[in-house]
Design goal:
Layout: H1 2-7, H2 26-32, H3 35-46, H4 51-63, H5 74-80
Biased composition (Polar residues): 1-13, 22-31
Region (Disordered): 1-31
Length: 88
């Protein structure tokens, strides 16, 4: 039995087809721009465009902060986070 198993090999019959690489033309390069153009477009969607939306986002971040202990100084907390919450 061992001799029969040893002589049989299962060769994969899959074939891999290579596709030709398409070189971008100068028109395609201009249209695609840079990766930073795409990044800026994504950020523009995520960043609020008006002050009301920005205020809501800032308030939501504030509400998500953990509560202070009774022994902590709230004025010190606000001083440390004045750059994080400039509109509050």
């Amino acid at each position: 039995m061992r001799s029969r198993i040893g002589t049989q090999t299962n060769e994969p019959t899959e074939t891999v087809e290579e596709l030709p690489v398409q070189q971008p033309t100068s028109a395609q390069s201009i249209e695609s721009g840079s990766i930073w153009d795409e990044f800026d477009a994504e950020i523009a969607v995520l960043v609020p465009q008006n002050s009301t939306a920005a205020g809501i986002v800032e308030f939501d971040k504030y509400i998500g902060e953990p509560l202070l202990k009774r022994t902590e100084n709230p004025l010190l907390w606000w001083n440390e986070r004045k750059a994080v919450y400039p509109g509050l």
